């Protein structure tokens, strides 16, 4: 049976600026075996082309179509809600580009889709504007709720920290689109043309990668090359299907990628027609 992979990057493919040894061999194997895959990131800072270039320079030559960011998921979602809308944006190039590509204009007052969209980069004056727009009725949309992100120079505040500031100041509650939101998890699966039972998420973070997969009925592989230690798993009410030290383990040719995580849930792959439903209901 065909499987495909949604693959987190930070802590799975690289850590900071360093490639995780063997990650390149795993991706090469996917390409050689024509296994569908998509890199999935909650980083809204870069465009998909920026991300593909970063990966290529690290020795993983991939096309930008292999990358799906929370900025893209957010822009597509907003464009479906309000075609050719406008939004006030606290964020960076990747988010602005994604909004423009999806027909949005970025404004600094009276956003007509009533949305304040939050990525990571912010300045106090932008927060003050956003607070007023939200109090005037704009909806608060977050690209993700990650509390912080690891960098080469330590830990920096994430989008979730900015969103918490805006929520506290306004009493509003944000809607978040990035992992683990089903909006991004579902869009990514559809981007690959896979069914629920064919989709496997690989990530290093329980709160986003594994929870996102669990909520969608996807299978999940947790790798221990990033933010999670195995002894922490008892704290969670959910877990992955498989735990591996690193994606390098999946580069081993003796491992069959089609059966590495058994048991895809086919119950979401199709819906019964009404006649079948009527015969079986109750
Ligand atoms: Mg990660």
Question: Could you explain the architecture of this structure?
Answer:
The structure is a single chain. The chain has 282 residues and is of the alpha/beta class. It has 2 domains: 4-42 and 180-268, 3-Layer(aba) Sandwich (Rossmann fold), CATH 3.40.50.1000; 78-176, Rossmann fold (3-Layer(aba) Sandwich). Helix content is 33%, strand content 20%. It is built from 9 helices and 15 strands. A 6-stranded parallel sheet has the order 5-4-1-13-14-15. Strands 7-6-8-9-12 form a 5-stranded parallel sheet, with helices on both faces. Helix 3 (70-81) crosses helix 7. The longest helix is centred in the N-terminal third of the chain and has 12 residues, at 70-81. It is globular and about 55 Å long. The model has no long low-confidence stretch (mean pLDDT 92). The structure holds magnesium ion. Magnesium ion binds at residues 8, 10-12, 203-205, 226.
Give the SSE map:
Blueprint: E1 4-8, E2 14-15, E3 18-19, H1 23-32, E4 37-41, H2 48-57, E5 67-69, H3 70-81, E6 86-90, H4 93-101, E7 105-106, E8 115-118, H5 124-135, E9 139-142, E10 148-151, E11 154-157, H6 159-170, E12 175-176, H7 182-192, E13 199-203, H8 206-216, E14 219-223, E15 242-244, H9 274-280
Parallel strand pairs: 1-4, 1-13, 4-5, 6-7, 6-8, 8-9, 9-12, 13-14, 14-15
Antiparallel strand pairs: 2-3, 10-11
The chain binds magnesium ion (MG).
Magnesium ion (MG) binds at residues 8, 10-12, 203-205, 226.
């Amino acid at each position: 049976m065909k499987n495909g992979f949604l693959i987190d990057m930070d802590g799975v493919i690289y850590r900071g600026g360093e490639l995780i040894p063997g990650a390149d061999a795993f991706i090469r194997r996917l390409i050689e075996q024509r296994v569908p895959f998509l890199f999935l990131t909650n980083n809204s800072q870069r465009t998909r082309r920026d991300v593909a270039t970063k990966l290529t320079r690290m020795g993983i030559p991939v096309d930008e179509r292999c990358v799906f960011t929370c900025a893209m998921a957010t822009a597509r979602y907003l464009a479906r809600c309000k075609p050719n809308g406008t939004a006030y944006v606290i964020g960076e190039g990747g988010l602005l580009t994604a909004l423009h590509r999806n027909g949005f204009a970025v404004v600094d007052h009276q956003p007509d889709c009533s949305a304040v969209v939050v990525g990571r980069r912010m300045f106090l004056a932008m927060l003050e504007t956003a607070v007023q727009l939200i109090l005037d009725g704009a909806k608060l949309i977050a690209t993700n709720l990650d509390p912080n992100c690891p960098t080469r120079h330590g830990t920096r505040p994430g989008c979730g920290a900015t969103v918490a500031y805006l929520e506290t100041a306004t009493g509003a509650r944000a809607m978040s689109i990035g992992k683990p939101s089903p909006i991004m998890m579902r869009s990514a699966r559809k981007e690959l043309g896979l069914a629920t039972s064919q989709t496997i998420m690989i990530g290093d973070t329980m709160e986003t990668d594994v929870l996102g997969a669990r909520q969608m009925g996807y299978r999940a592989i947790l790798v221990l090359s990033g933010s999670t230690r195995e002894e922490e798993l008892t704290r969670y009410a959910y877990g992955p299907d498989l735990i591996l030290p690193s994606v390098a383990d999946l580069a081993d040719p003796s491992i069959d990628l089609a059966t590495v995580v058994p048991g895809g849930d086919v119950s979401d792959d199709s819906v019964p027609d009404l006649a079948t439903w009527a015969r079986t209901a109750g």
